[in-house]
Write a structure and sequence with these properties.
3 helices, mainly alpha
Length: about 90
């Protein structure tokens, strides 16, 4: 067997990443998983309505809205986890 020198390694050029602004990233992430922003908007809406009800003295409605807020937060969290699973499955393919 002839012991020769290994072939020289040539470094490959690094990929050039374009700068992505906040708006572009937000739109891309919203397109990837549209349920998360929807869940966030629902959570904020229910929270706002619950606080308005509390300020007006309607405690029954306020308590109902705070429970609905918990459900909306749960939906948002489930949508976030679901989006992460789908993204992980796409990257495996």
């Amino acid at each position: 067997m002839a012991a020769g020198l290994p072939p020289p390694l040539e470094p490959s050029p690094l990929p050039v990443l374009s700068e992505e602004g906040f708006g572009d990233k937000f739109l891309r992430k919203t397109r990837e998983n549209p349920l998360v922003p929807l869940g966030c908007l629902c959570t904020v809406g229910v929270l706002t309505y619950g606080l308005i009800s509390f300020k007006r003295g309607n405690t029954r409605q306020s308590q109902l809205m705070m429970r609905a807020r918990i459900l909306a937060q749960g939906f948002t969290f489930a949508a976030l986890l679901g989006g992460m699973v789908v993204t992980a499955m796409k990257s495996r393919k």
